[in-house]
């Protein structure tokens, strides 16, 4: 029998009875002088790590593990600063990119490298090679705020540029990935007009392209591909001081459409109480083992796990002391083994996963978050240290839950917790939470959203120095968009009070 008790008192603890057996990470390498910058696993055994050396300034070290992170060794040193990333079409063919416009290439697994200079490159962030000949460089600029893709088919002997921008668009290209030798994809950010993110699919032979809208109010830090499933992690809804939400977006159709599968403001006094200093600065790196299991990491030792393809995420609440408060982390799977590299030169290998659902964990919890007579989309629902998001109709579901006692509640997804300077509470939820004693599937765990917001109209005009109105100028405030009319006037009819845009 299941017992359901509804409390309308102040919610003082998200989880008092739900206990997880925490995952166990083993420290495999430590050198505080080496600051990990980029981690890549071209196959199930080989892992390459590029580091900036803080003692020998100006040097970049390339490390290799050939046994899934158990042992590490330096295979090469570069007298170059501003190291950006590594591309490995395979474990023998390695490319290193540096911000000041040159690359190093090895065709023998890193035993020796050749320098390749590219005349037009003043700066870039990423190089991605399909094989030893076909490749792309992203975020190139010749004039500030002017961005290009550079494309080669002959190992950078020659190349061509691709750029799409006008008065309404300033596109910046990041995280390229080849689908085949003709099609490359990447994320695109726009700094003008309709500000937000797009997903680009480009034919490098014809330069024909497709742009698919992702959304606004998010920043991308990393991306991972699993066939047609694409995951992007980063931050959303930024506020002063760098505070933001943990954000993860997912596409199941190769980048055509996107949905937010995590959007949560996390701080140790807001989301949960534990021994870690959880920092509200978003996520930095994401990787997947297969279509179900993945890991994302962030500042302060933040680690989140999914075992259902991103439908829900479990926050790690006890970590090794040396991960505690690290400013940056990287994560990648070497085959089935996840590897974490931290800013202070530590490399960890997961040796015991105790958070994954067990065979007997079969309970499903489901419900809806209502706003009037409609479901409220994009709301985090928290079950202990596990989080899911309501869909476009306000429904949520947790699958493969173990029998036991749980506290569950709908989360105000903005900044209504530990930072009074940015206090913002758009909704109150009734009931505030449920306490559940589960022995079987449970449905109808619903919440009703009480709207606490106030809206105003915002209007103005865009004129030249001669006082003439400018028409057809796109403008955005948050998620709202409009266009100026003939005399340059514009109006946003419904902008929320007490928000910063």
Short note summarizing the structure:
The chain has 501 residues and is mainly beta. It starts with a strand and ends in a 5-residue tail after the last strand.
- Uncertain spans: 1-20
The averaged pLDDT comes out at: 85
Straight-line N-to-C gap: 49 Å
Q: What is the topology, as strand order, of the major beta sheet?
A: 1-38-36-33-34-27-26-25-24
Helix content, binned percent: under 10%
Biggest beta sheet attributes: 9 strands, antiparallel
Radius of gyration: 24 Å
Give the tally of β-strands. Answer: 43
**If helices are DSSP runs of H or I spanning 4 or more residues, what is the number of helices?**
0
Anisotropy-based shape: globular
Q: What percentage of the residues does DSSP assign to strands (E)?
A: over 45%
Structure, described:
- The chain has 501 residues and is an all-beta fold.
- It is built from no helices and 43 strands.
- The strands form 10 sheets. Strands 1-38-36-33-34-27-26-25-24 form a 9-stranded antiparallel beta sheet, with no helix packed on it.
- A hairpin with a 2-residue loop joins strand 31 (363-371) and strand 32.
- The protein is globular.
Question: Strands, helices and their partners?
Answer:
Elements: E1 3-7, E2 24-30, E3 34-40, E4 47-53, E5 60-65, E6 73-78, E7 83-87, E8 94-98, E9 102-106, E10 114-117, E11 126-129, E12 135-141, E13 147-152, E14 160-162, E15 165-166, E16 169-178, E17 183-190, E18 196-203, E19 209-215, E20 218-226, E21 229-236, E22 245-251, E23 259-264, E24 283-288, E25 294-298, E26 302-306, E27 312-315, E28 329-334, E29 337-342, E30 346-352, E31 363-371, E32 374-375, E33 380-383, E34 386-389, E35 395-401, E36 404-410, E37 427-430, E38 433-438, E39 447-451, E40 455-461, E41 474-477, E42 480-483, E43 489-496
Parallel strand pairs: 31-39
Antiparallel strand pairs: 1-38, 2-30, 3-4, 4-5, 5-6, 7-8, 8-9, 9-10, 11-12, 12-13, 13-14, 15-16, 16-17, 17-18, 18-19, 20-21, 21-22, 22-23, 24-25, 25-26, 26-27, 27-34, 28-29, 29-30, 31-32, 31-35, 33-34, 33-36, 36-38, 37-39, 40-43, 41-42
């Amino acid at each position: 029998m299941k017992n359901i008790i509804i409390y309308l008192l102040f919610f003082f603890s998200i989880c008092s009875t739900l206990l997880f057996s925490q995952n166990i990470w083993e420290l495999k390498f430590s050198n505080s002088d080496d600051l990990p910058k980029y981690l890549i696993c071209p196959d199930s055994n080989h892992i390459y790590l590029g580091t900036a050396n803080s003692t020998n300034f100006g040097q970049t070290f390339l490390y290799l593990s050939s046994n899934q992170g158990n042992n590490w060794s330096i295979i090469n040193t570069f007298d170059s600063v501003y190291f950006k990333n590594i591309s490995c079409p395979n474990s023998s063919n390695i490319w290193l990119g540096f911000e000041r416009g040159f690359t190093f290439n090895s065709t023998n697994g890193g035993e020796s490298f050749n320098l390749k200079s590219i005349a037009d490159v003043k700066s870039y962030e990423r190089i991605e090679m399909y094989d030893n000949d076909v490749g792309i460089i992203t975020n190139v600029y010749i004039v500030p705020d002017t961005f290009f893709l550079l494309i080669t088919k002959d190992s950078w002997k020659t190349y061509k540029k691709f750029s799409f921008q006008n008065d309404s668009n300033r596109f910046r290209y990041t995280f390229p990935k080849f689908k085949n030798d003709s099609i490359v994809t990447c994320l695109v950010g726009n700094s003008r007009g309709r500000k937000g993110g797009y997903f680009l699919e480009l034919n490098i032979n014809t330069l024909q392209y497709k742009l698919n809208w992702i959304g606004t109010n998010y920043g991308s830090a990393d991306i991972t591909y699993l066939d047609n499933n694409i995951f992007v992690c980063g931050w959303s809804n930024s506020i002063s001081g760098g505070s933001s939400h943990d954000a993860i977006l997912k596409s199941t159709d190769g980048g055509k459409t996107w949905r937010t599968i995590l959007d949560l403001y996390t701080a140790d006094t807001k989301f949960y109480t534990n021994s870690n200093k959880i920092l509200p600065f978003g996520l930095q790196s994401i990787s997947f083992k297969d279509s179900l299991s993945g890991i994302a990491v962030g500042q302060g030792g933040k680690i989140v796990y999914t075992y259902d393809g991103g439908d829900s995420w479990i926050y790690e609440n006890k970590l090794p002391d040396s991960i505690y408060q690290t400013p940056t982390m990287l994560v990648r799977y070497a085959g089935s083994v996840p590897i974490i590299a931290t800013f202070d030169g530590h490399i960890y290998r997961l040796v015991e996963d105790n958070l994954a659902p067990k065979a007997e964990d079969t309970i499903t919890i489901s419900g809806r978050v209502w706003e009037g007579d409609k479901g409220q989309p994009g709301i985090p629902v928290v079950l202990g240290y596990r989080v899911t998001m309501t869909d476009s109709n306000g429904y949520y579901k947790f699958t493969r839950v173990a029998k036991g006692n749980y506290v569950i509640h709908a989360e105000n997804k903005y900044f209504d917790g530990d930072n009074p300077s940015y206090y913002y509470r758009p909704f109150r939820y009734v009931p505030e939470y449920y306490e559940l004693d589960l022995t079987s599937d449970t449905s109808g765990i619903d919440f009703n959203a009480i709207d606490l917001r106030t809206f105003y109209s915002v209007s103005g005009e865009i004129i030249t120095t001669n006082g003439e109105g400018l028409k057809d100028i796109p403008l955005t405030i948050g998620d709202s968009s409009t266009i100026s009319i003939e005399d340059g006037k514009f109006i946003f009819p419904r902008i929320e009070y007490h928000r910063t845009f």
